[in-house]
Amino acid sequence: MRLKMGLLIKEMGKIICKMDILPLPLGKLSVMSTVILGQKKDYTLNEKVAADMRNGASTGSIAWLILGGNEFMPEKPASDFDFINRNIKKLSVASLASVLNVPMKDMATLLNISYKTLGRKKRSDSLDNLSSSLSIEIANTIAKGITVFDEPEKLNRWLQKENKALNGQKPFDLLNTPTGIKMVNRILGRIEEGVYS
């Protein structure tokens, strides 16, 4: 059962805005800023993802948020083609690690680069093409998982649990290769369709 909470914003006794609030914790989160009604308000990544999910956003849009939103790419992607040949920065990897609730050491392993190399990079330094592509594919898989499970905690538990459909391996451990990502996506698709996996 899901509880729906609401927030009414009043100004001089008149309701000027009504917002539905759905809690969507995503581990350690960065804060993104946005402007509403002429006033600056800070929103966490989970609030942005929750709003996009309520509005029926595509997994590409959710992946864009997971990778850092405007810091990753100035505008929301119109299609998957917007992700092609885009070298991502270390800050996008840090944002992805926050959503997955894993340390950067584990992210380095997923991206097949040494932890020292990743650690030496500045937040604004770009990764190579292969690591960038893997990061984008992992973010798309996580975005799909969030839409399937509705709650990131459930997704993170599922990622860390051995899965019979994956020969007893943890889905998280398979995210370091394109083939493994494809297998995890296939299982998420089966879960989405209601097939026991």
What would you note in describing this structure?
The chain is globular. It is built from eight helices and four strands. It is α+β, with helices and mostly antiparallel strands. A hairpin with a 2-residue loop joins strand 1 (5-11) and strand 2. Mean pLDDT is 78; it is low at 1-11 and 19-43. The strands form two sheets. A two-stranded antiparallel sheet has the order 1-2. A two-stranded antiparallel sheet has the order 3-4. The chain has one domain (24-192). The longest helix is centred in the last third of the chain and has 21 residues, at 129-149. The protein is 44% helix and 14% strand.
Gap from first CA to last CA: 22 Å
Radius of gyration based on Cα positions: 18 Å
Sketch the major β-sheet: 2 strands, antiparallel
Listing every helix as H and every strand as E from the N terminus to the C terminus, the arrangement reads: EEEEHHHHHHHH
Task: Note the overall shape.
Answer: globular
Question: What is the percentage of strand-forming residues?
Answer: 5-15%
**Which stretches are poorly predicted, pLDDT < 50 over at least 5 residues?**
1-11, 19-43
Kindly report the average pLDDT value. Answer: 78
Gist of the model:
This protein is α+β, with helices and mostly antiparallel strands and 197 residues long.
Secondary structure layout:
Layout: E1 5-11, E2 14-21, E3 31-36, E4 39-44, H1 45-54, H2 59-66, H3 90-100, H4 104-110, H5 115-120, H6 129-149, H7 152-159, H8 178-192
